[in-house]
Amino acid sequence: MSICNATTEYPNIPRTFAKSGHRKGNTMVDTHFLGGINFFSGLTARELRQISELCTIVKLKKGVTIFKRGESAEQFYVVRSGKVHLSVPIPILLASTEIVVDVVIPGNVFGWSTLVEPYQFTLSAYCDEESELIQVRGKGLLSFCARKHHVGHVLMGNLVKVIGSRMDRMQGLLEKEIAFNVPSF
């Protein structure tokens, strides 16, 4: 089960976090830190302050599943420290295995399916090591963008760069896999 499902023990904390040693940090996110993230570049200090109100800092242990492919996307994340693996299930014979398609390091975002329809995660995410993440409420950010069109324009432009970068890395993986599996004559 992923962190997207709430528990009664911690009603505002997703299930996987609560069951696996999640520690909820302070709720104030440093706007200077957000300003240094490429995804938020081009925004004013005031806009960053407003976005920081939509954020929560979460600390996760190694191996914690953050979300699974196909689940409803309600928040996205910025890595403050640690490493997050993004994976996709690949069927092999009668079983399925997760193949890592990207590694997210500090300063980068993931889970951006929260910002685009159909609002479902296309990959799974888990902590490869103890990590500290900034969790951003997707609906809140979309609502803010609807009120502040400039912010929406800037963030969607930055999101295109994130998507393009991810696609380049995935294409590189595919090319390596094809080169490895194609017989030479």
Characterization of the model:
By secondary structure, the chain is of the alpha+beta class. It has a single domain (15-181), classed as Sandwich (Jelly Rolls), CATH 2.60.120.10. Helix content is 33%, strand content 27%. The chain has five helices and nine strands; from the N terminus they run H-E-H-H-E-E-E-E-E-E-E-E-H-H. The chain has helices spanning 15-19, 31-35, 45-52, 138-147, 149-181; strands spanning 23-24, 55-60, 65-67, 75-81, 84-92, 95-104, 109-110, 124-127, 131-137. It has a five-stranded antiparallel β-sheet. Strands 3-8-5-6 form a four-stranded antiparallel β-sheet, with helices on one face. The longest helix has 33 residues, at 149-181. The radius of gyration is 17 Å and the shape is globular. The N and C termini lie far apart (47 Å). 28% of the residues are buried.
Sum this structure up briefly.
The chain is of the alpha+beta class and 185 residues long.
CATH class category:
Mainly Beta
Uncertain stretches of 5 or more adjacent residues: 1-23
- Give the overall shape: globular
Tell me the β content. 25-35%
Radius of gyration: 17 Å
Helix content: 25-40%
So, CATH architecture? Sandwich
User: How many structural domains are formed by the residues?
Assistant: 1
Q: What is the CATH fold-level name?
A: Jelly Rolls
Overall pLDDT confidence? 84
* Assigned CATH superfamily: Jelly Rolls
Describe the strand arrangement of the main beta sheet, using strand numbers.
1-2-9-4-7
Order of helices and strands: HEHHEEEEEEEEHH
Q: Would you count the extended β strands for me?
A: 9
| Structural class by SSE content | alpha+beta
Query: Gap between N and C termini, in Å?
Result: 47 Å
Largest sheet entry: 5 strands, antiparallel
